[in-house]
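ARCHIVE RECORD
Type: protein–small molecule complex
Small molecule: 5,10-methenyl-6,7,8-trihydrofolic acid
Source of inputs: curated submission
Record status: active
Notes field left blank by submitter.
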Amino acid sequence: MTQSTRRIGVPEITARKGGQPIVSLTAYTTPVARLIDAHADLILVGDSVGMVLYGMPTTLPVTLEMMIAHGQAVMRGTRRACVMVDLPFGSYQESPELAFRAAARVLAETGASAVKLEGGVEMADTIRFLVTRGVPVCGHIGLMPQSVQVAGGFRATGRKLDEAEKLRADARAVDEAGAFAMVLEGVVEPLAAEITGLVATPTIGIGASPHCDGQVLVSDDVFGLFADFTPRFVKRYAELGQQIEAAAEAYAADVRARRFPGPEHCFGVVKPG
Ligand SMILES: Nc1nc(=O)c2c([nH]1)NC[C@@H]1CN(c3ccc(C(=O)N[C@@H](CCC(=O)O)C(=O)O)cc3)CN21
Ligand SMILES: CC(C)C(=O)C(=O)O
Ligand SMILES: [Mg+2]
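STRUCTURE (tokenized, with ligand):
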């Protein structure tokens, strides 16, 4: 049977502003990408890959090479969802020109549709530089994990008046720079709602209330595969980590008791009769 499902395009994501919520999840590997392709509108190859798959304490050591390799893996496992790739720390902050070079490599070498980068007012010129040269950009403001050393931790933001003013300015700047969407991470509910009403581009929340135009979560959090910490904004829809541990325990017990492998797993068994 011929499958002619066209991949969701970047303009279709932007067109969801104020309409049907955008469903987004991260993926880093081909098998997980295959499992979620039919259910997610937008798949993010997040730099959270460093913490989730590599055990790094922050996202800071993640390289452009890692993002490209995982972007390629996710593209191989998808045909319907729109795929975007995080630009990692150090690959875009220095100048719009360096950001373009990194983003162009991502789009050319992975086939993904867009990139995401962290920063508001400070990154607006870079976002405009990329978008006007053919690179769709998703913004990311609020809790910015690549700024963890400046912030002194992974902290929700927008409670204080100065924080709220900065976030409004960031959202406006990213919107006016031409981002096709923006992630709001760890933003207090009333401010996330206000910003969503303020900007023309869709907001995709993570820890930013149901008032956003979409939601994103780290897939390993959703599947119960990540055990190091559970942010308040995570809802676990499965406990696959527990199932994996139980499977490993059962396998070990079978091998030790010589219950595995059984005859059905062996070659050249002499059948009776
Ligand atoms: N598995 C995973 N899930 C994520 O959502 C995620 C990553 N990794 N890595 C990259 C960033 C880091 N993120 C994080 C990490 C920790 C907290 C956290 O501990 N939050 C606390 C305190 C919030 C506060 O003090 O304001 C919480 O209770 O949610 C939040 C977001 C979100 N991202
Ligand atoms: C949590 C999302 C928004 C992200 O940036 C990531 O997974 O890297
Ligand atoms: Mg990220």
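CURATOR ANNOTATION: The pocket of 5,10-methenyl-6,7,8-trihydrofolic acid (ligand 1) is lined by residues 48, 51-52, 59, 143, 145, 154-156, 218, 220-221, 226, 229, 231-232 (CB under 6 Å).
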